[in-house]
Amino acid sequence: MRKIILASMAAAAFSLAACSEKAQQETSEAGDAIAADAASAGDAVADGAADAADATADAAKDAGNALEGTVNAAGDAAAAAGDKIQEETKKAEANDK
Predict the structure, then answer these.
(1) Cα dihedral 78/82/85/87 (nearest 10)
(2) Tens-level pLDDT at each residue, the chain (97 residues)
(3) Cα–Cα distance between 54 and 48 in angstroms, integer?
């Protein structure tokens, strides 16, 4: 009877050891899959950040161009106003004489 119990215990121990190895393998594979998913997600975030940075740079360039156009237009208007003032001043001086 003792031998049967010992044999049963030994068989159970070997079964648990085999299960343990299988469980370790499955756990390792699951860990590898998680790591691959995390790497893919990290790559996607990096790509998204690069795209956002490019879009921000393009928008800043467009805003700079618009601002430059506005400043140039304001400068042209100020120059035209200065010319008009100078012209009207000459007319007024001519009338005073």
Answers:
(1) -130
(2) 556 665 566 555 555 555 566 766 777 787 788 788 888 888 898 999 999 999 999 999 999 999 999 999 999 999 999 998 998 888 888 877 6
(3) 10
Question: From CA 88, how far away is CA 97, in angstroms rounded?
Answer: 15
Buried b (16+ CB within 10 A) or exposed e, 11-29: eeeeeeeeeeeeeeeeeee
Tell me the H-state helices in the chain: 2-96
Q: How many CA atoms lie within 13 A of 51 on its CB side?
A: 6
- Distance between terminal CA atoms of the chain? 141
* Rg, Å, the chain Cα set: 41
In the chain, the amino acid numbered 6 is: L
